[in-house]
Amino acid sequence: MRYVQLRAFHHVAVCGGFSKAAGALGLSQPAISDQVRRLEEDYDVILFNRQRRQVTLTEIGRQLLEVTRRLFATEGQAFEILSQSQTLRGSTLRVVADSAFHVLHALARFRAAFPGVGITVHVGNTEQVMNRLYDFQADVGVLGEMPDSQDFKTLLLSSEPIVAFVSRDDALAARSTVTLAELCTQPLVLREKGSKTRYKFEAEAAARGLKPQIAIEAEGREAVREIVATGIGVGVVSAAEFGQDPRLVAIPIADCDMRMDEALICLRERAQSRLISAFFSVADTASQPAGDLAAG
């Protein structure tokens, strides 16, 4: 099939007729009619019911329109990104994240699309991420939740369960699962207050009348990881952030489904910024499963 044929079909379908499609594309009506006719002949299908002056889609036409909507929407996004490239050159995107892991793919794609844009990344807990955005010290943030505040534009990046993790030499390392009650009897190594992972873990325990035994409070995810690796206690983390550390073993929590919904956010009042809008567009594409991209 030819691109011009799909474009002609799409515009006839969305405009509601051959004359309107011709006007939208700046072509003659015979040219549009010829392109649609050739598409139908090439694949031995009928895409439109032509009854006097009314044009309606056939069933296969409706199916094809679902595809061309995605096709031309993606084309429009690509054009917008490329046309912004020169405008954004020389600027710097400031990212603050509770974990840079969830935005690495988006950063790589953004860098490839806008090589002239600088990028800085700061790491902090939920409270620090939001404060830097409110203080205009960052452009976009990454949080372990979808914020409730209407102050922010949000994009869901991933949703992963919270798991426990221990040193490979720990007695729990041989377990396939552990219950929340069992975890609460273990010496726990948790992040500082303000960590969303810690908040969700403690909230779930409190809801069940359990009291976690916090042995060590450490600032930052890496500090927790290093302490747990020595065998001192048990940590909790989003499964997506566990990584590949041969010193550690992740253990699913069997009797609850605590999840971390990693979200990309920005202040709503700044969402139309060319720099921020371009990054959201790239991140949205990067967060889609491969199957969705192929279908589009």
TrEMBL record:
It holds the Pfam family HTH_1. Gene3D superfamilies: 3.40.190.290, Winged helix-like DNA-binding domain superfamily/Winged helix DNA-binding domain. It comes from the Bacteria. Keywords: DNA-binding, Transcription, Transcription regulation. The keyword Metal-binding does not apply. InterPro entries: LysR_HTH_N, LysR_subst-bd, Tscrpt_reg_LysR, WH-like_DNA-bd_sf, WH_DNA-bd_sf. Residues 1-58 form the HTH lysR-type domain. Belongs to the LysR transcriptional regulatory family. This is LysR substrate-binding domain-containing protein.
